[in-house]
Structure formats: structure tokens, C-alpha cells
Design a protein that fits this description.
Largest sheet: 7 strands, antiparallel
Shape: globular
Number of strands: 21
Distance between the termini: 51 Å
Radius of gyration: 24 Å
Structural class: alpha+beta
Strand content: 35-45%
Number of helices: 10
Helix content: 10-25%
Oligomer: single chain
Length: about 450
Amino acid sequence: MRSKLSQLCDQFPDLKISFRLINWETDFLRFFQSMTNYNISKESTSLHTTIYQDKRSYSFTMKDPKIDAVKAKIVEAKEILQKLPADPNFIDLEDDTRKAKVITKKNNIIEIKLEDKTTILQQLADMTAKYKFKIFGTFICNYTIHTTINSNGVDKQEISSPIYFECKAVADANQVTVLEVFGGEDFSLFNLETFEKSLETKIQAACNEVVDVEAGKYKVVLAPRCIGEYLGYLSGSMDASTLDNGQSFFEGKVGEKIFPENITITDSPAEAEMINFSYDYDGHVYEKTPIVEKGVFQNFLVGNYYGRKLDMKKNGGEAKALIMETGDKTLAEMISGIKNGLFISSLHYMNFINPQETSLTGLTRDGTFLIEDGKITKVVNNLRFTVKISDVINGIYAIENRSQTIPFSNNYGEFGIYSTKMPHVAVNDFQITSSTHTI
């Protein structure tokens, strides 16, 4: 199919054509109440095609494509194309024909056997049962081949085999939840004893009394998952598309110090321990890109279309591999320095109020704890918060001296999996608006 798609580009010299062929597989294990709920394996092949002529474009997607059917669809699409409005800002397709360094990857669907997964889950279930908790979650391995071909000679292929293991422990008595995750592409980095110990420590904290707290501003410790999610939401403002439509928080701020000097954020798609990427959607090499260096905003994430439209240097960045640089504090030191505050493990149901101002609202979940006199003492009912992400980052006064890879996925359709690498951070003046009065 790959060579035939290249030939199709030549057969329509009056068009510019962009193909993205995705061969996707998943092995999806779900567990519920400490028992395997189901294990599903799926495969799919899809072809996403866009054709361009005279600044007009038309896109279509085909499942299980056959080359004759693709050719017929292009002929049909040419007629539709003439009835569509032109895009005066379209210049050309991606023309970056450089090849990224090839990274050898194992197929984790094959490498991680079902019996390996169930052995891990049984050990975790046995541990949690001692505390009258049960485990729920997913253990997913994907294997995907992305092929990008276009009329400008781009012909590239990227293989990924990400792992997403999410284990939630839920108390039988009151449904208090805590969460532990592992993500990446190298399963040799998974240490069951470390994973189990971390989950057990969270369970022990979750066995304490459940309380409410009043609305107000608190010193908080945000877990790596939290700061990763905040930066994920903020990544829209890092993209040149939001700069173009006037919705970017970072507009006009390149070279300006906008965050404290302890903040350095990089989009690093080849980082060890993370899920790696070689190319962006259009086939440009996905380059390591500094976003913030010692508080100074450095670069937008720029793809082909907006790079050409805005006359910006392309870097292929997609915010799928954000890293925050570590600091010099241990987690214990950060907690011990708080007299009255909160430890927040995870965030949920976040929605922007104003993306340009970075303001949003959301809920805490999966382990919110009260910190009193430097110790975690009680479980706190889930809380509503309203914050500006920029204020959260500006409020960071301490950063952990180690970081953790956190995987993210929506788990719908031909879902992808990506990761961030974040430390715990301590933040001043985090605004809690109310308690949900529920776990």
C-alpha cells in the first residue's frame, strides 16, 4: 500500500495529495473489583486523505482501504472540490523530507503476555485486600504504524508501541479512591515492587478519616499527574494556531520572563522513559523544543500550515512529550513545610472559562488529602477549584528532585497514548471554590 500511495500522487499531477495511513492494534485488559473484566484485541487500518487544488481542499477517511477505491474516491473528490471555497492562506503541503533517527521498538502486545499482566494484578489485588480495598483499571498495549506520504516527496513511517497501565484502588467501606499509573514503551522499566509500595502508601493515607474543607486559598502539593494535566491544557496556547486566532496566552511574550526562574518546560519527543514520537501529523520531524527556559517563554509549537501562514520556523512540536525540569526538594520536605494545606493527586472534569487567560474550573479526585503541621492526616472530599494555569505555575515555590512519567489517553476509537514527565510541585494560593461533599 505504501508504494501504491506514492504512485497515486504521481497519477494526479494537477493535485497536491496528503495521505496518512494508520495500522493500529490494541490489547485492552480491563479489571473490575479485583477481577479481570474483559480482554479485547482489536486491529484496524484507516487512510486519511486530503486533496488540494487552487487553494481548495477536501478530506476523506476510508477504513480498510483498497488502492482502486482510493483512486475512485480521489476522482469523485475532485468534482466536489470545485464547489468549495478557497483558503487564501494555503501555500503548500509539508516539504520536510528529512528522516528522523530510527528508534527500534518492540511490539508490547507480543512482549507483555496476558499471564504477566494477570500475575501483576493478582499481586496488587492481594495487597489491597489487606486494607479492604479492591482494584479497578486498565492495562493497555498498542502497536501502531503511521505512514505519511504526500505529493512533495514526504514518505515517512513511524512505529509506536505505548503502554498504559492505570490501577485505581477503591475502599470497600466508603469508596475512597487512590491511583497509581505506569506508562512508556519499555516495560523493563516497570518495577512491580516500587509500583506496589507507592500504591500501598496511598492506600494507607486513604484509610484515614474523611473530612470537608472550606473554600479559600491553600498551599497545595500537586502530584505529577496534576501539573502534567495543567500543562496539557496550557499546550493549546503554545500552538501557533492559537497565536493566529488571537487566543494564545503567550502572544507577544517570546523572550519574556513570564514564570519563576525555577520553571523550565520542554517538548522532548525522544526522551528516555517516555512514549516517543518521530514526526508530527504532516510528517515534519518532531524536534525537541524548549518552551520555557528558567521562566522565559522561548518557542511556539509550529507545524506546516501555520508555519507558512505566519512565517514562523517549523519545529513539528505537538506537546505530546512535555517535561518539567526537576528541582531540589524531596516530596517529604515539601509536605513537611506546609502547616495547613492540601495534597492533590489527580484532576477531573476540567473546562476552560477563558483559554487566553488560562482560567479554568474542575474537580479533584483519586486522593485529596489534608496536610496539617507537615503531615498528611485526613482524606478530603473532592473539591471544586477555579484557577488560572498561569497563576498555578507562577505560584510554584518548590519542585521535587525527581520526576515520574505519566501516560494519558482518551481510550476511544483508534486512540493514541502519550506521556508527560513531571515532578511533584508545591504551590501557593491555590483557589478552592467549594466542596462536593462526596468522595
